[in-house]
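Kindly draft a polypeptide, keeping tokens residue-aligned:

***
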Amino acid sequence: MIARPSIIVGDSHSGWTSAFNVIYWPMRAFSRGLMDEIVIDPYAVSDIVPIDYVADGLLALLDHDEVRGTVALVAGRRLPPTRS
């Protein structure tokens, strides 16, 4: 079995992360005033999942020997919108 998570971000409760990669760099730069704006396509899909969700999913998969192939750990219907 292969588990493929979407873009992994910090903890779902605290937001804590040990590294600021991919999505965090522009957010951090914007919050510090280093960027005036962040260009986002309001119709784009940005599937992000918290690290604890990914960990729980991996642990749950260990209990299911019958699962084969590739498993996608994605937000699905809980996907956060890029527009308000």
In short: The chain is about 25% helix and 15% strand. The chain has a mean pLDDT of 81. The first strand starts at residue 2 and ends at 5. Helices lie at 24-31, 51-62.
